[in-house]
Amino acid sequence: MDLTKIASLALSTGIFFFVVWLVRERRLREKYALLWLCTSLFVILLTVSRRFLEVAALSVGIYYPPSLLFLVGVLFLLMVAIGQSVTLSRLSESNHNLAQEVALLRKQVEDVGVGMGLDRDGDKDKG
Known about the structure:
Layout: H1 3-24, H2 30-48, H3 50-59, H4 65-115
């Protein structure tokens, strides 16, 4: 086994166990962890069996196997970016709705305070 294979295997195995540790520490949710675990297993598979990469590349019509890795990597990053954009959009909408609810609640508290003769800070009016 050459140095490149050993380094690639060590790195992908390290990423796999790091993701498992992040999930156990509740720093990474399972739905995101699945993507990274599958990716590290895919890299481990390609590292152990270069023949798999050659067969997969030829089966989809790619004659230079490293090009398949590049294509898969670009598609992977595209899917991660789309997933993060969806999550960001959902959180942005949620943040907007929460800000509106806080503003309405703040207005209701002020109205109740005015009805009780309190100013904005909750102190009695001196009048």
